[in-house]
Write a structure and sequence with these properties.
The complex is a heterodimer of chains A (364) and B (507). Chain A is of the alpha/beta class and 364 residues long. Chain A has helices at 2-24, 66-74, 90-106, 121-128, 186-195, 210-222, 234-242, 253-261, 308-322, 325-333, 343-361; strands at residues 44-45, 48-49, 78-83, 109-114, 136-142, 163-178, 201-204, 227-230, 248-252, 265-270, 295-302, 337-342. In chain A, 39% of the residues lie in helices and 20% in strands. In chain A, the strands form 2 sheets. In chain A, strands 3, 4, 5, 6, 7, 8, 9, 10, 11 and 12 form a 10-stranded mixed β-sheet that branches. Chain A has a two-stranded antiparallel ribbon with strand order 1-2. The radius of gyration of chain B is 23 Å and the shape is globular. Classes of the chains: A alpha/beta (364), B mainly alpha (507).
Chain lengths: 364, 507
């Protein structure tokens, strides 16, 4: 009996130790660097993205805006970030890292909860129906969020249902082939797709997924066809390529960088307008002559009806975090690019991607 | 050989420091707690503690997260044995005979053999991990077609779980297959049996269903019974006798092999390996009728399989950089946060980390055995709680567990509906184990079949183009033929007995 008690006490002590460590080991706040003036919406200026109103104003570390103070007061210093995906994925890891920095910035406790399901829409629904005080924030990923445009979709939200805040995380998709593959450039691949119409196999996350959309865009622009092999998630795509059951696939740099570093895969081209800092020697597909863009953007939003001054203050805070060099360095370790988008720029990008998505999905 | 020894020495040197040892102990402890809490799986626990990877040294953070994962494999057994509530997916098969042992006053023994079995399996599997690069090179050659063959073979195992009535067993199996079909069709994106509910797009929550058809239906059955069961006097000895060990060692070794193999197959659910180990034990046993009524091998085999799989799951990650589960994806993130790249180069560029992780898993086995055995008496003392209070606590525990799955009441509703369905089917004598197996195997079978066809441009003849898959088909024929022959023999025997009884009666 006495021994049982000792064991119980030891277990409680260990748990308490871990919990106390969790509370105290947050990284120290770094000072923000605000960069130069903006010219056009969406243009990158250093680490900040330009907005319609010009350079973003970011408060100094010591001065907390009144809107933030009242926000934290309303939320009783308890914030919640709802992730529409399961634990362990790129979105989850991005959100948990961001939550750590929001905690440092505000001093509030940020709880990250996973509400996976229906391609992220269950999490989005949860945030949409939360109180109009912004104590609950949620993640929205582009282009995954565009699933509402698919004819078979039962998703009920649209862009207008969401109160967008800002984007911090970005990862372009890259075409990869097996290290032993005969393809050394994207041109080799396209030429073979032409020569062997419909016989080249592409690993995909399913119809309407970002990679499938990029393949169809590429096929349409080059007049080629291919066979889509649907796999169950990005790890399954990696396994399928390693076992040479598919000839190529497009995956986020965040997801495949380890395999490229390990020399298991060759990167042919990046579906982005600019070269990735994580793959400096890999050309963009545009440079290689194929103007196809396919990226992933990780953003935060809240429910409609939140005071605009409060939403704006949260946006400013996120942009400040995005300018934090320590935050950028931490993201670098995960091969996540910090490419901030203001709510306006995010909204514009959403519209641009929606137009492209609709045009391709209508032909599938 | 000398190279392996020196590598292992390097690994142990990097983990056998007070600091790393402390993180390993904390990880194992947290893992056990995670395993005990249904719904709160190792992925959620490691995800919550991932930010530690930014502040802790690489070895410490990776060892802690790996120990959480591995510890949860030990912890998941406890509620399966004591309450018929699986703490996590891989403990489902343990419910069958583990809970039956509890009913027979052998709860302590069941927990002890699962700890010992897990330890032995873990140690053997860690030995296999030493050769992870060579094993991974073979594992990566498994195609979707091979996985389809093995899934089909695993599905025939359902025959071993059907109990007395094949028809009732098949009803249960088809129910499981149907449950597994609910959700979005990943190949077309179209919804299947979702009834317009967004929550069903990802399918029905497995743990909630399993808790319902096993744990909740058991409680409803007991409440509806004439006499309430009382387990307070049924704790029994926690010490294993030499005979118990002798009875179980074969099951442990077979379970280890099965679990280790399943851990290498891409997309293989953990629950499938423990079910496979269970049915193999039943099949090789000289007294298969004891299974389902508290056979110690029915606990030892699945538990060994579960833990061997826990270790072999590290092989695709360490040797190829492929995370085979959500928890492994978090571990992969912990590696990359620390500037490390899991995969073939890890053993060359960062041998102290790769071998340190292997050494830490060996260490975790010892820590968990030391933690688990003395705690058996504490866990078993839960049964001293009066039955009705215990049921109330268990119901709350299951409901909270279901709520944790996705933070909504939907899974709690699923739990209750599954409980009522399970209770009703039990009343008609329909066994629940086949359904549990087919819920996990159904989607695996479908995905491997359809993807195999896509890889082979839709040609059906390609389904016979793999020697591994063909071997699996041949084994299916053998399994089914054996079952048919034994059924015919049994019915002939019964007929003979009846006719001789009739003849005796007429005399």
């Amino acid at each position: 009996m006495k021994r049982n008690k000792t064991v119980q006490i030891a277990a409680i002590a260990v748990t308490a130790l871990v919990l106390s460590l969790t509370a105290t080991t947050s990284a120290s706040a770094a000072t923000a660097k605000v960069n130069g003036a903006c010219k056009t919406v969406g243009e990158k200026s250093g680490t900040l993205t330009c907005t319609q109103s010009g350079t973003k104003k970011v408060w100094k570390t010591t001065v907390v805006p009144a809107a933030i103070k009242s926000w934290l007061k309303d939320c009783n210093n308890q914030l919640s970030v709802v992730i529409g995906y399961g634990a362990g994925g790129a979105t989850d890891i991005w959100a948990r890292l961001l939550a750590k920095y929001i905690e440092t910035e505000t001093g509030a406790k940020v709880n990250v909860t996973n509400t996976p399901g229906a391609g992220g829409s269950l999490g989005i629904n949860k945030v949409m129906s939360s109180k109009r005080n912004a104590c609950t924030l949620g993640n929205v990923n582009l282009p995954s969020a565009l699933q509402y445009l698919r004819p078979t979709s039962s998703v009920t939200y649209t862009k207008e249902s969401l109160n967008l805040i800002a984007t911090t995380g970005f990862s372009a998709n890259v075409i990869v082939v097996h290290a032993d593959s005969k393809y050394n450039t994207v041109k080799d691949l396209v030429d073979d797709m032409k020569a062997n119409a419909g016989r080249i196999k592409a690993g995909s996350d399913g119809p309407g997924s970002d990679d499938a959309i990029a393949y169809y865009d590429l096929a349409q622009k080059t007049g080629t066809t291919f066979t889509q092999v649907v796999t169950d998630g990005s790890a399954a795509k990696v396994a399928a390529l390693l076992s040479k059951q598919v000839d190529f696939f497009g995956g986020s740099i965040t997801g495949v960088k380890a395999n490229i570093d390990n020399k298991q895969f060759k990167a042919l081209c990046v579906f982005s307008d600019v070269k990735s800092k994580f793959l400096p020697t890999t050309p963009t597909c545009k440079e290689a002559g194929y103007d196809v863009i396919s990226t992933n953007m990780w953003s935060l939003f809240t429910s409609q009806g939140v005071l605009e001054s409060r939403r704006q203050a949260i946006e400013d805070m996120l942009l400040k975090i995005a300018a934090n060099t320590t935050y950028i360095a931490d993201n670098d370790k995960l091969a996540i690019e910090v490419r901030p988008f203001t709510s306006d720029a995010l909204s514009e990008e959403w519209t641009r991607q929606a137009v492209l998505y609709k045009s391709i999905i209508s032909k599938l | 050989m000398s190279e392996i020894i020196s590598n292992l020495q390097l690994g142990f040197d990097s983990v056998l420091t007070l600091n790393i040892f402390m993180w390993a102990v904390i990880g194992c402890g947290l893992g056990m707690i995670t395993g005990v809490l249904p719904g709160f799986g190792p992925a959620a626990a490691t995800g919550l503690l991932l930010p530690f990877a930014f502040v802790l040294p690489p070895t410490a953070s990776i060892v802690m997260l790996a120990c959480i994962y591995y510890g949860s494999m030990y912890g998941g057994t406890i509620t399966s044995v004591l309450l018929n509530v699986p703490g996590e997916a891989s403990s489902v098969a343990t419910c069958i005979d583990g809970y039956a042992m509890t009913k027979r006053g052998m709860a302590g023994k069941a927990l002890s053999i699962s700890a010992v079995g897990s330890f032995i399996a873990g140690v053997i599997a860690v030995f296999g991990l030493i050769f992870s690069q060579k094993i991974a090179a073979i594992a990566i050659t498994f195609t979707y077609l091979d996985v389809f063959g093995f899934s089909l073979l695993a599905l025939t195992l359902v025959v071993g779980l059907t109990g007395d009535s094949m028809i009732k067993g098949l009803i249960s199996a088809f129910l499981g297959l149907f449950i597994g079909m609910v959700g979005l069709d990943i190949y077309t994106g179209g919804p299947r049996f979702t009834m317009g509910l967004d929550q069903l797009q990802e399918g029905l929550p497995f743990i909630a269903i399993i808790m319902g058809i096993f744990g909740l239906s058991e409680i409803l059955e007991s409440i509806g019974g004439k006499k309430q069961p009382d387990y307070s006097g049924n704790i029994g000895s926690t010490l294993l006798k030499w005979q118990d060990f002798k009875d179980s060692i074969g099951a442990i070794l077979r379970g280890t092999g099965i679990g280790f193999f399943f851990g290498l197959l891409p997309g293989s659910p953990a629950a499938a390996s423990s079910f496979a180990a269970y049915t193999v034990e039943k099949r090789v046993s000289k007294t298969p009728e004891r299974f389902g009524k508290g056979a110690i091998q029915g606990v030892a085999g699945p538990e060994a399989a579960n833990n061997a799989l826990g270790i072999s799951n590290f092989i695709p990650l360490l040797a190829l950089g492929i995370p085979s589960s959500a928890t492994m994806a978090i571990l992969l993130a912990a590696f990359t946060i620390n500037g490390l790249t899991p995969g073939p180069l890890l053993f060359t560029n960062n041998p102290e980390i790769a071998w340190g992780l292997i050494a830490s898993l060996a260490l975790a086995n010892v820590i968990l055995l030391i933690m688990a055995l003395p705690l058996v008496r504490m866990w078993v003392s839960i049964l001293k709680i009066p039955t009705m209070i215990l049921y109330t606590i268990t119901l709350s525990f299951m409901s909270i567990g279901a709520y944790i799955i996705d933070g909504s009441m939907f899974s709690v509703l699923v739990l209750w509906i599954a409980g009522i369905v399970g209770f009703t089917l039990r009343r008609f004598g329909v066994p629940m184990a086949p359904a549990a197996l087919t819920i996990v195997l159904g989607p695996m079978l479908e995905k491997s079949f359809r993807t195999a066809l896509q890889v082979n441009y839709g040609e059906f003849s390609s389904l016979f183009s793999s020697s591994r898959a063909n071997t699996a088909y041949a084994l299916i024929v053998v399994v089914l033929a054996t079952k048919m022959i034994s059924s015919i023999r049994k019915s002939n025997k019964v007929r003979k007995m009846k006719s001789s009884a009739a003849m005796n009666g007429s005399k």
